[in-house]
Each structure stands twice: as C-alpha cells, then as structure tokens.
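hiii so um. not sure if this is the right channel but i have a protein structure encoded as tokens and i wanna go backwards to a sequence. like what aa goes where. can anyone help
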C-alpha cells in the first residue's frame, strides 16, 4: 500500500486541513510511491502560529544548548544513513551511490558545522567616547520560512535549517512538492534530537499557494529561498508587501573556461563531473564550455569519450552514477532545449535522446548530451536547462573568454582551467559570479560562502556569513556618566 505522510505542525503530525493529498512519484520508474498532504493557506497559518508560540523559549536557550541539539540531530542522521539515502533515491532519482556517499553524510556534517561555528559568534564594542558604552548584539529574527527546491531535497533544507535553528529562530519549512519525503523525515529526527515542538514545522503543498502564503505571512520575518529565478522574482514582489527580508539562491548558467596552457586531462575529468553530476540538476553545473582554439578539437574528443562512459540507469544500483531527471515535465523541458539547440545549428556530438536500456524505459531519463560549434546567441546557451546538456565554444584570447563567460544574466559560479595560478587569479577577479574555482568546478565546503550575483540572487548560505543572514544586529547604547548626552541637548535650551 502507498504510504500516506502527514505534516509537522506544533510538534504534531497532522493531515492537510482540506484532507487533500499529492502523489509522490519515483522518477526512475514513474510509479507513485507515497502521498503527501496538499496543504493550503489555513495550514500555513497554523504552522506559523505554532512557530510564533515556540520561538521565544528557543531564542532564550543558550547557544550551547541549541548547539547540542544540532549535534544530536547530526548523529541521528548518520544513525539513519541508509534509510535516508534510500528515501531520497526513491523520491528524487539520485543514485544511491550519491545519496549514501554525498547527500546524507554532508547533511550530518552541516549540522555539526553550524553547531560548532555558532558558538564562536560575537558582537562588538564600539569606542564612541568615554561617557558611554556602545555595543552590537546579534538576535534571532523570530519565525523564518524556508522554501527549498528538489535538486538536493535534503541538503538544501539542511543548509538553511542548521543556520536558522542554531541562531535561535523557529522555522516553517516548505519542501518541494515532488520530493518532500526526506524533509518530513528530517523534521521527525529533529523532534527526536530535542528540538521543541513548534520550533521546526514542515508543511507540504503547492508553491503558489502554500509557499506564497508563507511569504505573505506578516508574522514571518524572513524567507530563505532556493529555487528558480522566476520564483525568486515572484517571492521578492510578494515579500515587499510586508517588507520582509529574503535570501535568494537562484539559478545559474555556469562557465567552464579552458585556457591554452590547461592540463587537458584534468579539465576533461572536471568537465564530466561538473556537467553530469546529479544529471546536471545542479545550480552550479557547468553548462557553457569555453575552450581555447588550440585545444578545442582535442578537448571535445576527450570530453565526448569520457561522457560516453558515464553509467546511467537504475539509481538503486550502487554502480549507477547518473539517474533520471526529477519528473516527467522536467525531462520534456530538457528535451525541448535539445531540439532548440539542433534548430539553432549546434552540432550534436553526443546523446540528444532518451537512453534505450531495460532499466531506463519507464523513468524520466536523458542521456549525457554534448553540443559543439555553439555560440552565446543560441537560446540554450543563455537559459538554465538544469539537465545533462552542455555546449562547447572556441575562443582566441583570455579577454574574449571572460567576455563570453560574463555574457549571461546569471552570476552564480564559473571555473578557469590553467597551469598559471596568476592568470587564474586575474580571470577570477574579472568574472562576475559568486564563486570562481581555478582548476576545479563544483566543490563546496561548509566553511565557504555560497551565493550568487546578478539574477542568481543575493545573500549567502554556508560559512560564518550565513549566521548574519538569520540574525539581526542590534546596537545598544548605555550612558555611563548619569546625564543625557551633552552637546545636542544644548540645542533646545
Ligand atoms: P522552483 O523555484 O520551481 O521551486 C522551489 C521551491 O519554491 C519549491 O518548494 C516550490 O514549491 C516553491 N515555490 C514555487 N512557486 C512559489 C511561489 N510563488 N511562492 C513561494 N514558493 C514557491 O525551483 P525548483 O524546485 O524547480 O528548483 C530548481 C531551481 O533551483 C533551479 O533554478 C536551480 O538553479 C535552483 N537552485 C539554486 C541553488 C543555489 O544555491 N543558487 C541551489 C539549488 C537549486 P513546489 O515544489 O510546490 O512548486
């Protein structure tokens, strides 16, 4: 029988007020594997109400007490390592090899990181004058809404939840409708770890009703959002009614620049990883490849040969490295970009069609796809495809490569491949993106800030910088000499 999930509101597991449910489909098989509540605005009201009630007591705990809860949660995640990995593989199609070795351990590590780093958070004393003490303190925001995407269902919520919780906020989490199950399970583990009732609430349901009601809610101080740029724009608009803070981690169309002196074999290895990891459903995936003309043919041949070896298929098989796309509509969108690229004159070097193997027949698979002879005026080189589809472009000078890399509405990440560190650093300075890697692509640590510029959004996840995103700086002034501050008072006399 299909398992029916409930949502977490005020420490209780409840159905949607309407009683409606949504089907959760395994993208590798097309089968319905579970049902999750299809909540509405009234459920959002209840969840926010529970968070409002729970927030003061959670904020009043010491950071050490909150930190211990996060450490316990980290341990519980590893205690349920295989179960969580299987759940994410089932709802999202990520290969089990990835969810076991990457997603679940990283979720545990993120909570550990936030548990530790928040304890070193400080305020400042400001030397204004001898007659006063001026200081800054960091306070929680209150209730925050966390709205997350489907491409890394567990990790994307943990990035935000860890920071928001340890800094003393109560949270209402709205996971993606196509893959909410790992988030619901994390909510359950959070309760087991000792998060008080109402401090973490998880509600499922459509973004344009449930998500938007959360953004609109006057008692929500901030929205931490990761998702599409179009949705981010909508959230900014709606949030402006209540002058709410928003953190926006949005899309990307990321450049991968191979200079004439690059180590071509390591660049090819990096290219395959950054293009096809998670089936290309990564905001920072490399999708625009700029190759120096002297290396173009060799790089293209080696890249295609290496991409052919990517083992796609049944994500529950430990040997599989690339699973299906997350849902049928997304597969269709990716395929329409492939057709568009062909019409625009890009040369198909690899893939471009659905694989035809027994274990990919029913799922939403697209094979690794590489186009050559591309240019930036092609639509598929400008839009975020969010699938295993990339285009190669040849360039003559590093200046031209930078101009091509910057010719995008996005600004999330890029990489430069060169043996000359000085050139790498110089180009990193000229590329407009939140992260530029030199001789690497798609590597993120807890300690390093993550976030984009231009239409990739603003604000940072991860690193100590995210602690500022979930706290507000208050200035406190204390008079030390027993009389109100002197020079200006004279103005009224
Ligand atoms: P969406 O923007 O479609 O959805 C993200 C979340 O927002 C979902 O929970 C969704 O709910 C919800 N939502 C949808 N509409 C609204 C609305 N009007 N108001 C409030 N919430 C809403 O993104 P995807 O899930 O498709 O994720 C893919 C995108 O995420 C890509 O563009 C990718 O680049 C980006 N991303 C960015 C990252 C970064 O760090 N910059 C990292 C990872 C992904 P529902 O599921 O019900 O529609």
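sure thing!! here u go:
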């Amino acid at each position: 029988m299909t398992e029916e999930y409930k949502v977490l509101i005020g420490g209780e597991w409840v159905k949607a007020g309407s009683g409606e449910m949504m089907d959760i489909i395994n993208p590798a098989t097309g089968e319905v594997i579970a049902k999750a509540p299809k909540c509405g605005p009234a459920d959002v009201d209840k969840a926010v109400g529970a968070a409002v009630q729970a927030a003061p007591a959670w904020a009043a705990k010491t950071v050490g007490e909150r930190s211990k809860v996060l450490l316990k949660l980290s341990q519980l995640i590893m205690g349920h390592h295989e179960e969580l990995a299987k759940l994410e593989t089932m709802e999202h199609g990520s290969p089990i090899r990835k969810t076991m070795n990457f997603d679940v351990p990283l979720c545990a590590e993120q909570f550990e990181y936030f548990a530790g780093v928040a304890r070193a958070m400080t305020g400042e004393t400001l030397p204004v004058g001898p007659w006063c003490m001026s200081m800054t303190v960091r306070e929680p925001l209150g209730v925050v809404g966390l709205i997350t995407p489907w491409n890394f269902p567990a990790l994307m919520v943990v990035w935000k939840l860890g920071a928001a919780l340890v800094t003393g906020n109560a949270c209402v989490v709205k996971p993606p409708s196509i893959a909410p199950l790992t988030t619901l399970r994390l909510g359950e583990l959070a309760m087991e770890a000792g998060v008080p009732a109402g401090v973490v609430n998880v509600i499922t349901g459509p973004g344009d009703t449930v998500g938007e009601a959360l953004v609109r809610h006057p008692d929500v101080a901030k929205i931490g959002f990761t998702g599409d740029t179009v949705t981010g724009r909508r959230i900014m608009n709606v949030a402006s009614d209540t002058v709410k803070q928003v953190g926006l981690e949005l899309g990307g169309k990321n450049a991968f620049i191979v200079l004439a002196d690059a180590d071509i074999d390591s660049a090819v290895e990096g290219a395959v990883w950054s293009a096809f990891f998670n089936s290309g459903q990564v905001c920072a995936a490399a999708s625009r490849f700029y190759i120096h003309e002297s290396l173009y043919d060799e790089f293209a041949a080696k890249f295609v040969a290496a991409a052919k070896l990517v083992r796609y298929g049944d994500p529950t098989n430990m040997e599989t490295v690339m699973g299906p796309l997350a849902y049928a509509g997304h597969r269709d969108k990716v395929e329409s970009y492939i057709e568009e690229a062909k019409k625009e004159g890009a040369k198909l070097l690899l893939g471009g069609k659905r694989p035809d193997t027994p274990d990919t027949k029913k799922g939403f698979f697209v094979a690794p796809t590489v186009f050559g002879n591309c240019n930036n005026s092609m639509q598929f080189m400008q839009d975020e495809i969010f699938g295993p589809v990339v285009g190669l472009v040849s360039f003559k000078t590093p200046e031209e490569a930078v101009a091509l890399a910057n010719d995008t509405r996005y600004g999330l990440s890029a990489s430069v491949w060169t043996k000359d560190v000085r050139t790498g650093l110089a180009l990193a300075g000229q590329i407009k993106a939140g992260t530029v890697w030199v001789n690497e692509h798609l590597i993120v640590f807890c300690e390093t800030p993550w976030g984009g510029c231009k239409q990739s959004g603003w604000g940072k996840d991860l690193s100590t910088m995210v602690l500022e995103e979930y706290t507000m700086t208050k200035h406190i002034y204390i008079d030390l000499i027993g009389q109100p501050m002197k020079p200006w008072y004279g103005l009224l006399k």
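oh and The mean pLDDT is 97.
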